[in-house]
Write a structure and sequence with these properties.
The chain is of the alpha/beta class and about 500 residues long. It has helices at about 10-15, 20-40, 50-65, 105-115, 155-165, 180-185, 220-230, 275-290, 300-320, 340-350, 355-365, 370-395, 420-425, 430-435, 465-480, and strands at about 45, 75-80, 115-120, 170-175, 190, 210-215, 260-265, 295-300, 400, 440-445, 450-460. It binds glutamine (GLN). Glutamine binds near residues 128, 129, 131, 177 and 426.
């Protein structure tokens, strides 16, 4: 196997055993980047010089026999909404086009302390609002499995980078599906942890009530190791829980699913979603049964019917207040005007893209007298009902299976202009976010046209280990996803 095909754990092991150096691993990543990035467009900023320098530092530390961390010398990438000290952090927005933070986000510090090497900052939908990575200052990212299609979003750059073998592991953020859905579209694994597992300190907020830092990789083991590095209490983020985390990689020793009760979502007819994804869900249920679990159909009537509406009311209201800080004075772009109000309007109109402006306006409206009582208040109540529905399920089941997405990755440019159609694609991911639950996208191979299939495994709040355990059993049965050489399907290789 070549370096770029290895998982993060395999790369760390090989570097430790001196099969190759960290400098070689970083060079292998940049070889992939220089070969394919022109086609994929996954990266906003690359950090080749810094990465090589850090890699050689790690190599020297290892040569001296030091313990340089669990991911010593392993390349990684973060989405460009993670603050990185002295490195441009754009959030894919003109308003932060040239903004350089003065500190690192906590998860970036944790990865660096674990010895991992930051290679680049990945593309996203502006302020993480979107599902296709088409709304960005650098233009759309393309799906490496089929360059004519979207990679999903908003962490589309991170997902594409992992699928294309730039790096074995990347970090994204998932508010309503932004890691699970691009992982599904790019045919890799991605875990949105329970809300409160990972610090959000230094992550540029979209909706603080739901945002969660989430790893993407080509193996469940890598997700578990990333969780061990990322999930810890952080006094800088009061929403990050102080509880003692379990050893997440312990879940990987789950041999089978005997004694495990698994629900499989049966609330949709085959005709209501893509038939191949419907098939992947039933197949995953059969595999759980084969592995010894008691498998039964479940329905989530409240979550599936009201999830999208509840999510968009909650998220847009939160976003309108979070994005108030971009006033043309404290951060980034400033466009003058005759009065202060004109300056605000000029700066914000010129510097936010259409989707972000739409969400700020709707969110502001939702928080005004009258609308608050009619929309925001009821959304909070529905969210409580949804949580009760989830609690009821977990009284009977340890975990359940749900599709990650109702459709396969679609062609670029086809949904961008119709936000409602785009929002409906979040039907299976947003309820899990509203419940604060862990959700893992597991790659289920490919359909007859070569497009990635997937399933979502959901567990109770703080049951991230359970989810990783079920995923690792299924991954052993189906095989872990492989790197691809980016191409357009149908193109001769
Ligand atoms: N697609 C959803 C949205 O646009 C989710 C985005 C996210 O998780 N950041 O809000």
């Amino acid at each position: 196997m070549q370096i770029h095909e290895l998982t993060a754990v395999e790369t760390a092991k090989a570097i430790k055993e001196k099969k190759f150096s960290s400098v070689e691993a970083v060079k292998a990543g940049f070889e992939r980047i220089s070969k394919y990035e022109g086609h994929v467009g996954a990266l906003i900023t690359t950090l080749e010089e810094e990465a090589l320098r850090k890699a050689s530092e790690i190599d020297s530390r290892l040569a001296r026999g030091e313990d340089a961390g669990p991911l010593a010398g392993v390349p990684y990438i973060v989405k460009d909404n993670f603050c990185t000290h002295g490195i441009r952090t754009t959030c894919s927005s003109r308003i932060l086009e040239n903004w350089k933070p003065t500190y690192n986000a906590s998860p970036v510090n944790y990865m660096n302390d674990a010895g991992a090497i930051l290679m680049a900052k990945a593309n996203l939908d502006e302020f993480a609002m979107g599902s296709s990575t088409e709304n960005s200052i650098i233009g759309p990212t393309k799906n490496p499995r089929d360059l004519r299609r979207v990679p999903g979003g908003s962490s589309g750059g991170s997902a594409a980078a992992v699928a294309a073998g730039y790096v074995p592991v990347a970090l994204g953020t998932d508010t309503g599906g932004s890691v699970r859905q691009p992982a599904a579209f790019c045919g890799i694994q991605g875990l949105k942890p329970s809300y409160g597992e990972v610090s959000r300190y230094g992550i540029i907020a979209y909706c603080s009530a739901l945002d969660q830092v989430s790893p993407l990789a080509r193996s469940v083991e890598d997700l578990a190791v990333a969780m061990e590095i990322l999930a810890r209490a952080d006094s800088s983020d009061t929403t990050c829980d102080g509880y003692d985390r379990p050893k997440f990689s312990g879940a990987l020793s789950t041999e089978n699913l005997k004694g495990c009760r698994i629900g499989v979502f049966a609330g949709f007819e085959a005709s209501q979603m893509d038939p191949d994804l419907y098939g992947a869900l039933s197949k995953a249920g059969d595999m759980c049964r084969e592995a010894g679990a008691a498998v039964e159909p479940i329905d989530l009537p409240i979550a599936v019917k009201y999830g999208v509406a509840t999510y968009y009311v909650t998220a847009l209201a939160d976003a309108s207040s979070k994005l108030g800080c971009y006033d043309g004075i404290r951060y980034g772009t400033h466009i003058d005007g005759p009065t202060l109000a004109d300056m605000y309007a000029n700066t914000r109109t010129a510097s936010f893209g259409e989707e972000v402006r739409r969400r700020i306006i709707l969110g502001t409206c939702l928080l005004t007298e009258g609308f608050y009582q009619n929309y925001y208040g009821p959304a909070l109540k529905v969210r409580t009902k949804m949580t009760e529905e989830f609690d009821g399920i977990f009284e009977k089941y340890d975990a359940y299976l749900l599709p990650t997405t109702p459709s396969l990755p679609y062609l670029l440019g086809t949904k961008e202009t119709d936000p409602n159609r785009m929002y409906l694609g979040d039907v299976f991911t947003v309820p899990i976010s509203l419940g604060g639950l862990p959700g893992l996208n597991l790659s289920m191979g490919f359909n007859g046209d070569g497009l990635p299939l997937s399933v979502q495994i959901v567990g109770p709040r703080y049951g991230d280990s359970k989810v990783l355990g079920v995923a690792s059993v299924l991954e052993r049965m189906i095989g872990r996803p492989r790197v691809c050489d980016p191409r357009a399907l149908g193109e001769v290789a």
